[in-house]
Amino acid sequence: MSLEASAADMAIQENLEQFLVVLSVSLSVATISRIFSWFRQIPYTLLLVIVGLGLAFIDVRLVNLSPELILEIFLPPLLFEAAWNIRWRELKENWIPVVLFAIVGVIISVVGIALALSQLTDLALPIALLVGASLSATDPVSVVALFRELGASKKLTVLMEGESLFNDGVAVVAFLLLVGIPLGTEVFSVTDTVLSFGKFVGIGIGLGCLVGFGISYLTQRFDLPLVEQSLTLVSAYGTYLITEELGGSGVISVVTVGIILGNFGSRIGMNPRTRLLVSEFWEFLAFFVNSIVFLLIGDQIEFDSLSDNLDIIGIAIIAVLATRFIGIYGLANFSNVFTKVDISLPEQTVLWWGGLRGSVSIALALSVPVSLSGRQDIIDTVFGVVLFTLLIQGLSTQWVLKNLNLVGDQPLRQEYSELLARKMALGRVIDYFQTLDESPSIDSEFYRYEKELVTGQLKSIEEKIADFQQKYPQLESIAMQQLKDTLLDIEADTYAELIRNGKLGKNLSPIMLEILTESSEH
Amino acid sequence: MSLEASAADMAIQENLEQFLVVLSVSLSVATISRIFSWFRQIPYTLLLVIVGLGLAFIDVRLVNLSPELILEIFLPPLLFEAAWNIRWRELKENWIPVVLFAIVGVIISVVGIALALSQLTDLALPIALLVGASLSATDPVSVVALFRELGASKKLTVLMEGESLFNDGVAVVAFLLLVGIPLGTEVFSVTDTVLSFGKFVGIGIGLGCLVGFGISYLTQRFDLPLVEQSLTLVSAYGTYLITEELGGSGVISVVTVGIILGNFGSRIGMNPRTRLLVSEFWEFLAFFVNSIVFLLIGDQIEFDSLSDNLDIIGIAIIAVLATRFIGIYGLANFSNVFTKVDISLPEQTVLWWGGLRGSVSIALALSVPVSLSGRQDIIDTVFGVVLFTLLIQGLSTQWVLKNLNLVGDQPLRQEYSELLARKMALGRVIDYFQTLDESPSIDSEFYRYEKELVTGQLKSIEEKIADFQQKYPQLESIAMQQLKDTLLDIEADTYAELIRNGKLGKNLSPIMLEILTESSEH
Fold first, then answer.
1. Same domain, B345 and B445
2. What's the gap between Cα B60 and its chain centre?
3. Which is nearest to A378 in space by CA: A193, A134, A109?
4. How far is A27 from B282, CA to CA, in rounded Å?
5. How many CB pairs under 8 A join A and B?
């Protein structure tokens, strides 16, 4: 036992050192990219891939990215964070296209890619199916970040992120069902496959609901921010491991837990302050993990091996683009006809072109058993396609968004929100002066002068706001909502902060509570 | 390479599962202890030790706590967090007693315990010296938490925490210098020892300063909260590993980095929002690590082995208490004579009795080479003493504090602060009503009624505050300062939050900035 643990510790220590190196490189990239403004056009994650490629090119290999590392250590927090942040209401509005993309889209993608590769290259069909399954999970990190930055519509973000959350699970399950075939341990049968699929997904959703609602009701019984924060972490990893242990889909269960805790548990069980704390913690964790993953994706590339397979990769890229073209345009128009959601042609185009492949694809390719003879072909093809989608599609998505006029009126909104925020802050400064007035030990002359200055500033800002409201009446409702949200957050945070510091008891003014609940329902 | 990595991954996965179990147990303890109020009297960490002991008693062993795990994985974040939060100003005011306790106190402790054990038991002097060094690092987690909860003076907290931060380093260095002697690889020589000690400490402080100030000036050049947060994590682990690699004291370098970043870097390089984020992140990490460590301390106990060594443990306990008695009373009175700091007799008593031993002692004992014949004696003695200090001293410290009248007027202050906070929050509610007035789509009758209710409440609270101020004039200044701090924090947070969300540009109103800077100097 002692020896065993010591080996594990050495592994931990070695890993710790390696990851510190990786993180240092990633953070340098993050820092340098902000200092030289030219780099800011490139999403952070894509910049990491490029730097990783550079390191791979000079044969500096940082950490060996194994499927276990991706699937068990990196994926649960990434999926949990995305699921935690997705709004149930928005997902519900768009659930039909999301489910169509995530299930039918994956089937189209697996079958299409497999057929293309088996017909046009000398890959055997079972191997081609594995490539297809690996390449059917989309990775929206960089694209969604772009959407947010450029102020694309919420619908677009939800479609992209929702699809990706669920198609990860479907692709992993499809891969697991297909991986037995080339090994000869399994014969393909539609009934068995549907049954297995149902079992994987059913156990995943079932356990996810159990843990999600269990923790939601549990956290309602106490108010311990640090414990609740820890519980989200334990639930993300724990649910994944337990579900996998029981033969279900860990990916699907983590997504389920994340959606439940983010939309339900965090509202009924956490005070607003805790919710904010937990969100910030997961935002950090996701940043942290992404900083590692994308650098390592680039750093894993074997240029020699890739260049040997350029023909297969080329065909795979075309197949990936073609199947996604069919999937997105076909399913989006199908959903346009049968649901209230309207996905316009430009939106379809962005969804098509922005469907990047990332860490899940790589994890699946790497998890092909070493005993399988086509393993290296699978890995090379998947790496090649991932690289193409990240670099070529990823770097041009911004251009596509802009040329399709899908960029929102973000700059205008921002200017207006800035004015509102200034007004709010200056109002607070004046409040602050009033608290100073009450305390005797202050040079009143100086403060009166300062106060007048601020009051003057406030007036000129109020004039500008009125001006803005006249010119752009459409802004008012949006910004007013934003301001209300902010005010409510601050109000709630104030209470929670004071409670946390032990400066205030836990029984809030009931009127306050009432207002909070009411306004959040507006 | 692939095989190697795969072994490491399996170790990671196994460790992940084990730690999830440990965390689940710890979180259950945290939760249950809050639901049944009787448990709330016992500090969380001590409760974990007791539960761990219970698990060890029924022979459920969760994870093998190895010295590498404690020293390389658990200790850096704990030290960094404590150092990050210690206020330089307060430390500076009390630096003479802190340094005396941390250096002279450790020497008294090592020598005293070693002499007692070598004279009164059959332990050889070199072995007894290692026990002495292991037992010279104090662990203030539970005691400092008690201090805060009961409102003990800041001086007491700083003395306890400062001593512990530095004596960890000194004890580790002393241990490393002494561990060569019984192995015969080193002969004791005062000159060599002093030189080695200087080298260890010098490299530690030097590298700590380099990294600390380096990162401080680096973060001043950009405003990227997630990167800055990651940098603190990388710097904690990275500095530790690099310093150890270069033959310095990792413990001392982490403490140095933590103090610099917490007091200097976070002020010049981080916006207030980021500082808060980072503090909250480290608070969580420390909670997380402590939840693991204290449970495992209890869970490591081998009852059979301990009971065989009860005589040595008994003598060691008396020696630990006696040397700390001499150290604290002697050095405190020495410092009282030569400095402005006045440590009263009751305060000395709490410092003496509250000097618990924890994870560092255990890590040092476990790190004794397996080849040394007295290893099990050292481990048993140290575990026995740690258990005594945690359970007997730890659980009675609250009683000691109360009986020595060192508990502050916390309840009174809290009631008053609560009133002030309510006033502030209700004021905000009224502000909020005003923003609602401007929006047309609201049932004005209903809101007018609600507004009057709130206004009425506000008035009655203001009356209570006036009443309080008359009765307890000493409260006013404290609470006013608290309120000001809170207001400033909120003000700064508002700006930072809005900037972070991209709702506001980065150029703050200069008057606002001025006010912020000025008031923080009051």
1. no
2. 29
3. A134
4. 19
5. 260
Residue B128 contacts by C-beta under 8 Å, 6 or more apart in sequence?
A: B113, B114, B115, B116, B117, B118, B121
pLDDT given at position A310: 92
| Total number of domains constituting chain B | 2
Q: Is the complex ipTM higher than 0.85?
A: no
Q: What CATH number has the domain bearing residue A48?
A: 1.20.1530.20
Q: Which residues in chain B touch residue A517, judged by CB atoms under 8 angstroms apart?
A: none
Indicate the DSSP class of residue B38: G
B497 contact partners, CB below 8 Å, separation of at least 6:
A486, A489, B273
Give B-chain residues touching A280 at CB under 8 angstroms. Answer: 277, 280-281
Asked if residue A399 and residue A415 are part of one domain, the reply reads no
- Considering the domain architecture, whether residues B337 and B439 belong to the same structural domain is answered as no
The answer to whether residues A475 and A377 belong to one domain is: no
A277 contacts on B by Cβ (under 8 Å): 280, 284
The pLDDT tens digits of the residues spanning A76-126 come to 999 999 999 888 888 888 999 999 999 999 999 999 999 999 999 999 999
CB atoms within 10 A of CB B220: 13
* pLDDT for residue A486 is more than 90: no
Does residue B417 share a domain with residue B391? no
Q: B138: which strand partners? A: B357
The enclosing H or E element of A371 equals none
Q: What length is written for chain A?
A: 522
- Of the residues B403, B438, B463, which one is the last residue of a structural domain? B403
Tally of residues, chain B: 522
Q: How far apart are CA A460 and CA A426, in angstroms?
A: 11
Residue with tokens 């086509």: A374
Q: pLDDT tens, A202-260?
A: 999 999 999 999 999 888 888 888 889 999 999 999 999 999 999 999 999 999 999 99
Average of per-residue pLDDT values in chain A: 82
* Cα angle for residues B306, B321, B176 (degrees, 5° grid): 70
Helix (H/G/I), strand (E/B), else coil: A209: helix
Q: Which of A10, A149, A509 sits opposite B422 (nearest CB)?
A: A509
The mean pLDDT value of chain B amounts to 81
Q: Given A366, A388, A403, which residue is the final one in a domain? A: A403
A360 and A442 co-located in one domain: no
Contact assessment for residue B347 and residue B405, using Cβ atoms and an 8 Å cutoff: no
The whole domain housing B282 covers 2-403
Same-domain pairing of B164 and B121: yes
Q: What is the DSSP code (8-state) at residue A357?
A: B
Instruction: Check CB contact under 8 Å for A11 and B11.
Output: yes
Let me know whether A369 and A501 are in one domain: no
User: Tens of pLDDT along A412-445?
Assistant: 666 676 677 777 777 777 776 666 555 555 556 6
